[in-house]
Design brief:
InterPro entries: CoA-transferase_III_domain, CoA-Trfase_fam_III, CoA-Trfase_III_dom3_sf, CoA-Trfase_III_dom_1_sf, Formyl_CoA_transfer. GO terms for molecular function: formyl-CoA transferase activity. With 432 residues, this protein is of the alpha/beta class. The chain folds into two domains: 266 residues, Rossmann fold (3-Layer(aba) Sandwich); 117 residues, formyl-coa transferase, domain 3 (2-Layer Sandwich). It contains 16 helices and eleven strands. The strands form three sheets. The chain has a six-stranded parallel beta sheet with strand order 3-2-1-4-5-6, sandwiched between helices. Strands 7-8-9 form a three-stranded antiparallel beta sheet. The longest helix is centred in the middle third of the chain and has 21 residues. The termini are far apart.
């Protein structure tokens, strides 16, 4: 029995780079038949971006386009419009992430697509909400982060490094793709009731803002009382009228920080993150594991509120505990006492951790050829009765004939499309 959740769902993928492809790749891994439309001759921009070999597609492309079919198509030509129209008439989901107005200009707006196929769900990714004063800005990953509160609340709050800082995580790109996926799956469920597809609009800004929800919580609190007890600036620093940056302090009411370990001078990631919970029993266990049992009777430390007022003393003392141990030794000691703790792991450490090659967390895909095997991040959740099959990425236009035949075109028509520039670049004319 095929238990793929999206078996039988047809997706036309008119997206490129990262935000859209991350969404459609997940749909493919969940069993959907995804046809990726790429410009003849060049394809998705990421094919040739940050390449490790000029003759191979980049890992950027490979990690976002597994298990798709590639149709080389210039949808601006008359034949290209006819082909895209046929695909849309037969698909369940159409996804695009072109700049605002581009699909309308091409002739495939939501209104047009809905008339062509009322059951088709139309997913779109744009930089900002339609109502936003920034709606016409060209959006990249950092643009989403700096306008959604991520950058202004990330980084150090004082000194020369007190600058808005971009997260290493793709909050504006892949995160947006995951948010759109949620919307598309909701639309599929809705279609079961209504019989019609709907328009799913996902902005990069809103996806990023959703992950900054706790910062809007902090803003509400700041507006009410004028300070934030969990922040390093409390109690002696000054707060403005906006949520400041807070270094590595944990974002909720517990006291967390990143500490240097003994090899920090030669290993930039020999650090550990330690959290002191607010509960009395949890704090007692942590004190015993750290050897700080005097804190249990000291009024400066023996309540959570008192600890908020004496953060620097706490950080300084835990730092002394960690500095003569490796991050793994600290983790081993404190985790046995139930203390929330973890080593800071580099990408190399993560990708060489064999326990993560469990069929979903990290997966190996055999692309063949000069690329060979590569590693990517798999489906981020597991289903008890379904295991995704992670297949290779398509070559540019590698499924063009197959896709065209499946929607009724003859061999003669397919050959003419290649000659007239619809599915292959027009041959260059010799200079006279």
């Amino acid at each position: 029995m095929n238990t793929a959740p999206l078996q039988g769902i047809k997706v036309v993928d008119f997206t490129n780079v990262q935000s859209g492809p991350s969404c459609t790749q997940l749909l493919a891994w969940l069993g959907a038949d995804v046809v990726k439309i790429e410009r003849p001759g060049t394809g998705d921009a990421t094919r040739n971006e940050i390449q490790f070999d000029p003759d191979c597609p980049s890992y950027y492309f490979l990690q976002l386009n597994s298990d798709k079919k590639s149709l080389a198509l210039d949808a601006a030509t008359p034949d290209g419009k006819d082909i895209l129209t046929r695909l849309i008439k037969e698909c369940d989901i159409f996804v695009e992430n072109l700049h605002p107005g581009a699909m309308d200009k091409l002739g495939f707006s939501w209104e047009v697509v809905h008339k062509l196929n009322p059951k088709c769900i139309y997913g779109t990714i744009k930089g900002f909400p339609i109502s936003s004063k920034y709606a016409n800005l060209k959006a990249y990953e950092p643009v989403a982060q700096v306008t959604a509160g991520a950058a202004s609340t990330t980084g150090w709050w004082e000194g020369p490094d007190n600058v808005p800082t971009q997260s290493g995580a793709a909050l504006g790109d892949s995160n947006t793709g995951m948010h759109l996926t949620i919307g598309l799956l909701a639309a599929l469920c809705q279609r079961e009731k209504t019989g019609e597809g709907c328009y799913v609009y996902q902005s990069m800004h809103n996806a990023c803002l959703n992950l900054c929800r706790i910062k809007t919580r902090d803003q509400l609190t700041l507006d009410r009382i004028g300070y934030l007890t969990q922040f390093p600036q409390y109690p002696d620093g000054k707060f403005g009228d906006f949520v400041p940056r807070s270094g590595n302090q944990e974002g909720s009411g517990v006291l967390g920080w990143t500490y240097k370990c003994k090899n920090w001078a030669t290993d930039p990631n020999d650090y550990v993150y330690v959290i002191l919970q607010r509960g009395a029993k949890d704090f007692e266990l942590a004190c015993k594991a750290l050897g700080f049992e005097d804190w249990l009777t000291n009024p400066d430390f023996n309540t959570a509120d008192a600890r908020d007022r004496h953060k620097q003393q706490i950080w300084d003392r835990i730092q002394k505990f960690c500095i003569d141990k490796t991050k793994h030794e600290v983790t081993d000691i404190l985790s046995k006492a139930g203390v929330p703790v973890a080593p800071v792991l580099s990408t190399k450490e993560i990708m060489t951790d064999q326990s993560l090659y469990d069929g979903n967390t990290l997966v190996k895909i055999n692309q063949g050829g000069k690329v060979g095997e590569f590693v990517t991040v798999g489906v981020p959740f597991t289903l008890s009765n379904f295991q995704p099959a992670y297949g290779p990425c398509p070559t540019l236009g590698g499924n063009t004939d197959e896709v065209l035949k499946s929607i009724g075109y003859t061999d003669e028509q397919i050959a003419s499309f290649a000659k007239n520039g619809t599915t292959a670049p027009m041959p260059k004319t010799a200079a006279k």
